[in-house]
Design a protein that fits this description.
Chain A: GO terms for molecular function: acyltransferase activity. The structure holds 2 protein chains of 2 kinds. By secondary structure, chain A is an alpha+beta fold. Chain A folds into 2 domains: about 325 residues, Thiolase/Chalcone synthase (Peroxisomal Thiolase, Chain A, domain 1); about 140 residues, no CATH class. Chain A contains 14 helices and 26 strands. In chain A, a hairpin with a 3-residue loop joins β23 and β24. In chain A, α3 crosses α5 and α8 packs across α9. Chain A is globular and about 75 Å long. The N terminus of chain A is likely disordered. By secondary structure, chain B is of the alpha/beta class. A 9-stranded mixed β-sheet of chain B has the order 3-2-4-7-1-8-11-10-9. Chain B contains 14 helices and 11 strands. The model of chain B has no long low-confidence stretch (mean pLDDT about 95). Chain B folds into 2 domains: about 130 residues, Peroxisomal Thiolase, Chain A, domain 1 (3-Layer(aba) Sandwich), CATH 3.40.47; about 230 residues, Thiolase/Chalcone synthase (Peroxisomal Thiolase, Chain A, domain 1). Classes of the chains: A alpha+beta, B alpha/beta. Chains A and B meet through α13, β22, β23, β24 and β26 of A and α4, β5 and α8 of B.
Chain lengths: ~525, ~400
């Protein structure tokens, strides 16, 4: 990131964890490399967290809206629905933040970041670089985006576990399905973050296998919005029941274990009964079949093996072994063993699964997805023209939500400026970078504006007071944002700021959300 | 120590177009309408004007940038024309430029014109203004009802006013301005309303309903200023400039936690300085009436306190008691204000001065106040948290 002369090192900070202090020498990028003499060795999963959108679209409501046209049989439960300003990038940031909260030391140790999704926001640029900046990770990091199959998340985890670098894997997805179809009912939106490293681990890696097959059960050409699915009986018989057991068998061989050594089995599969049939075919009938979470949230695509894994880990005891597998143009199976640390693993995934708002308006799905043109008025037709030079010059402030602080007075300010504001003038002394994302704040003033354009009116915003005496006019987000008022505690979330539908450009920034609307921090 | 502007410059004459949805004319005709009226009152030739200031906010939908749109619309005689823009306070800014030019002695007669042609934008409410490249990357997509509704909520909370009481006080504010505008042939909205209509109008940004918001209007207003001596030599009764103060927010309100959101910081400073410049000890007894920037009903209530015409936390009660009605102790928005005369952004500051000039020279017709001697205009540009606020005081010689 750019480094301006007036503030040496200003834009290269990693930042404090939990926001209690300013950046220290040990948290600067590059410190991880120079301070660690020996090559680290990856031995397992050190942290895992998920993020699910608050909206839970009721399948009965989806049926009520569309079943006159496309009758569907099982309409129990709900699926998550990303709010208009959530996408795979924002959900990925949310999941990764929760993951890093579990292992703060990973902020400086991590050397690789992989972002996995079947629904990338951009064909170009790379989204992992956004995530890296939003998470304030060191710039000396190997970033990559992967996709193409819902298995990409687990494939990336497999690659990370076979590698030698401490790595952050973020899988986040919004599977794109045709209105009225079964897939629209079954798939959903969500993300997960996993840290792999040398420990202390929650799960030790015992072995894994990935098989590749040109088995195409759903496809979507580049530039096409919706997928086409093939008959699910074929997917079950020739896909799941053939490929997944073979991947499991290979993984167990590599782990030098047999099926009866496995106590839990995680396999996302939207076809009813198929996961159980795969378990039988793989000799894992005795293993506990992980909850598919189909009634609670639906299948989150590239994230779902990890979402199910995070939930299943809450029930594991030290020494128990688990196979997590996923299907998609082949299959991947990983064998993991719970360490003693699993006993302290907080049930944060359950809290996230349980923190939802029942949504009964099916039309929010096609509107939020851009599938349904709607009359947005003049204010909704204004172009979003991004000055990329400005965006890069301010990227640490905008993506990482880093303000500045006066070492002398302790006054915090956003955005950073050469002259820090005072009531009747300015402070001219040099300032230090000061990350704000984890500090949270308090609403000073609030409005619910019905004149301003919003994809979910009213447009809610107001002044937020941030510890250190800082204040910023911020967007509020969340379906219940209009309830926020002066004095309410807020936390900050990374969201879409604006979208330019002509070019596909998305601008991201941080927004305020009621602290009470989020599950308690792990 | 600067001696200030008091009594050094006179308003020779003013003009104002009819405000409203002027589908019939463009900005050039609006400027001409105001200018020809002022020229007629002034009794001078166009070639006696030596410098001009031009206020227009929306350059992309108005006549364009720079001074040429006005120079060409008014066929000015090869003089300097300076375009100014200071949000909704641009009209006062243009006036300030012309007044300072005369006070400096550089010119004898100067012109200030403000204009806006909002009804060519297609927007309900003010169109969004350009904010540069960085601000849109982090600031909310806001509107002025949204910005000023925050002021209303904070004011209510600060003074423990129930939402019902505040809503009725805001309703009375709008009802009073509607009543005042009924006889004003240049006003945009000339229909009387009841408090109940205002209170029950559709919500725009809670607690601001439709009738708490001024309309967006087309219009132009114009001032010709000179020295008091020249004005008298031309046989005119001059209206003297007593004070002009303008304060721009430096970012303190929006970047530090010191401001509680229930008042307008810049207005308090500008008013204090203006009273000092004009030599006014007690504005409540010195001023005859006031034209406030009532872009929203709440703005008028809060401003009454910010500029010392009501004690803090009491303006809402005094408004309900009729203190600011046309027959009250301090008539406000005698011409209907922004609320009903209308709000063509770049013209509004000059429109307020137009009413002051009419009243102080006894030309206000049916709405003429009895023997006014000193008047104040408050012209606010921007949002409560970040704005340009100007206070001008003018008086009879």
């Amino acid at each position: 990131m750019p480094n301006r002369g007036w503030q040496p090192g200003f834009l290269r900070i990693v930042g404090p964890d939990g926001g209690a202090c300013g950046p220290s020498a040990s948290s600067r990028p590059g410190a991880a490399i120079t301070d660690q003499g020996e090559e680290p060795k990856v031995t397992g999963i050190t942290a895992i967290a998920i993020h699910l959108p608050r909206l839970r679209l009721q399948r009965a409501s989806m049926a009520a809206a569309m079943d006159w046209l496309c009758a569907r049989s099982d309409t129990r439960g709900a699926r998550t629905l990303a709010f208009w300003d959530e996408d795979p990038v924002s959900m990925g940031v949310a999941a990764a933040r929760a993951c890093l909260d579990q292992a703060p030391e990973a902020r400086t140790a991590v050397r690789a970041l992989t972002f996995a999704t079947t629904t990338p926001v951009f064909a170009e640029p790379q989204q992992a670089s956004f995530l890296c900046a939003a998470l304030r990770l060191p710039e000396a990091i190997r970033t990559q985006d992967v996709g193409g199959t819902m298995r990409c998340g687990l494939l990336a985890l497999h690659a990370a576990l076979e590698g030698s670098d401490p790595a952050l894997l973020i899988a986040s997805d919004m599977p794109s399905n045709t209105p009225g179809g079964l897939a629209e009912l079954r798939y959903s939106d969500g993300g997960a973050g996993v840290l792999v490293g040398a420990g202390p681990n929650l799960l030790a890696y015992r072995g894994g296998a990935s098989l590749s097959a040109p088995f195409i059960e759903r496809y979507r050409g580049a530039g096409h919005a919706l997928t086409t699915d093939w008959e699910e009986r074929w997917v079950r018989e020739e896909g799941f029941l053939d490929l997944v057991p073979r991947a499991i068998s290979e993984a167990l061989d590599r782990a030098q274990l047999s099926p009866e050594d496995i106590q839990s089995f995680v396999l996302p599969c939207v076809i009813p009964g198929a996961a159980k049939a795969v378990a039988q075919a793989a000799g894992l009938s005795q293993a506990k079949l992980a909850q598919p979470l189909d009634l609670e949230c639906g299948d989150t695509g590239a994230a779902h093996a990890l979402v199910m894994l995070a939930r299943a880990m809450e029930d594991m005891r030290p020494g128990e072994r688990l196979v997590v597998a996923q299907f998609g143009q082949g299959a991947t199976a990983l064998v993991l063993e719970a360490t003693a640390a699993i006993a302290g693993f907080a049930p944060a995934a359950s809290a996230m699964i349980d923190t939802g708002i029942a949504e009964t308006n099916y039309l929010k799905l096609p509107v939020f997805r851009g599938l349904l043109p709607w009359e947005r008025g003049l204010r909704g037709r204004l172009p979003v023209s991004e000055a990329l030079t400005t965006a890069y010059r301010n990227s640490q402030a905008l993506l990482g939500f880093v303000g500045s602080r006066s070492p002398e007075t302790g006054q915090v300010q956003f955005p950073p400026s050469r002259l820090a504001v005072a009531e009747a003038g300015f402070f001219a002394e040099p300032q230090e970078p000061w990350p704000l994302a984890d500090l949270g704040g308090t609403v000073a003033t609030a409005t619910a504006d019905r004149l301003a354009f919003s994809r979910s009116p009213p447009n809610c915003y107001g002044l937020i007071d941030i510890p250190g005496g800082a204040r910023l006019m911020m967007d509020f987000t969340d379906p219940d944002a209009a309830r926020l008022g002066p004095g309410d505690a807020v936390r900050f979330v990374f969201r879409i700021k604006d979208m330019d539908e002509r070019t596909g450009y998305r601008r991201y920034f941080w927004k305020a959300v009621a602290a009470s609307a989020l599950p308690a921090a792990a | 120590m600067a001696k200030g502007i008091k009594d050094r410059v006179a308003i020779l004459a003013m003009g104002c177009s009819r405000f409203g949805e002027r589908w019939d004319v463009g900005q050039e005709e609006l400027m001409a309408e105001a200018y020809l009226e002022a020229l007629g009152h002034a009794g001078i030739r166009p070639d006696q004007i030596e410098a001009a200031w031009y206020s227009s906010h929306y350059d992309d939908i108005g006549a364009g940038k720079a001074g040429t749109p006005m120079a060409q619309a008014l066929r000015l005689p090869a003089i300097g024309v300076t375009r100014v823009e200071n949000f909704c306070a641009g009209g006062t800014e243009a006036f300030r430029g012309a007044v300072y030019a005369v006070a400096s002695g550089a010119v004898d007669i100067a012109l200030a014109v403000g204009v806006e042609k909002l009804k060519d934008t297609g927007f309900a409410g003010l169109p969004p203004a350009s904010r540069g490249t960085l601000a849109p990357m982090y600031l909310p997509t806001h509107t002025n009802p949204g910005n000023f509704s925050q002021l209303a909520r904070a004011y209510g909370a600060r003074h423990n006013i129930s939402s019902g009481d505040l809503k009725r006080a805001m309703g009375h504010t709008s009802m009073k301005s509607h009543a005042n505008a009924v006889t004003n042939k240049n006003a945009h909205l000339r229909k009387a309303i009841t408090i109940e209509q205002a209170v029950n109008a559709p919500m725009v940004a809670d607690p601001l309903g439709l009738f708490d918001c001024c309309p967006v209007s087309d219009g132009a207003a114009c001032a010709i200023v000179t020295t008091p001596e020249i004005a008298r030599s031309l046989g005119k009764t001059p209206v003297l400039v007593k004070a002009i103060q303008l304060v721009a927010s430096n970012g303190w309100e929006v970047q530090q936690s010191g401001w509680n959101g229930s008042y307008v910081h810049t207005a308090r400073i500008a008013a204090r300085r203006a009273y000092a410049e004009a030599g006014i000890a007690d504005p409540r007894t010195a001023l005859s009436f006031a034209e406030l920037h009532d872009c929203f009903s709440i703005t008028e209530l809060v401003t009454l306190e910010d500029i010392g015409l009501a004690d803090e936390g009491t303006a809402w009660k005094r408004m309900l008691d009729g203190a600011f009605d046309v027959d009250g102790v301090m008539p406000c928005q005698v011409d209907g204000g922004l609320k009903c005369f209308g709000h063509p952004v770049g013209a509004s500051g000059l429109r307020m001065l137009y009413e002051c000039w009419l009243q102080l020279t006894g030309q206000a017709g049916e709405r003429q106040l009895a023997s006014p001697s000193l008047a104040l205009t408050h012209n606010l540009g921007g949002a409560p948290a970040q704005n340009v606020c100007s206070i001008t005081i003018v008086g009879a010689a």
